[in-house]
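User: Show me a protein chain along with its predicted structure.
Assistant: Here is one chain, sequence first, then structure tokens.
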Amino acid sequence: MSTYFPSKGEVQPKWYCVDAEGQVLGRLATQVATLLRGKHKPEFTPFLNLGDHVIVINAAGVRLTGNKLAQKVYRHHTGYPGGLVEISAQRMMERKPETVVREAVLGMLPKNKLGKAMGRKLMVYRDDKHPHEGQKPEPYRLLAAK
């Protein structure tokens, strides 16, 4: 018996719209990463990009639990000597909440070309307005935490 692999045009990607208002960041990110990878589909194959497009709205309304708002630090380097930049999660949520959600989701995807391709299917917006109405995204209800 041969192994079945879906061909390129056989699986059509869907568009999902996820509302992040009041959701815990990590629990939201795991479910969005699952949609981007395509693990919710029966034809999931780890080395193929069969995931769906995901639009996350209301990123400013996402919650961080515990003391993460004060203690979590986002770091990046400018490339110059002594160029390490550290920003607290609270400051990042005030300035760019889209980045907080995007970094959480991308951290759960593979760290290779395939993961980058999956990451391009993620769109994050601060409020409930987005320019993707033409794709007719389906609203996606997040699973409740147990």
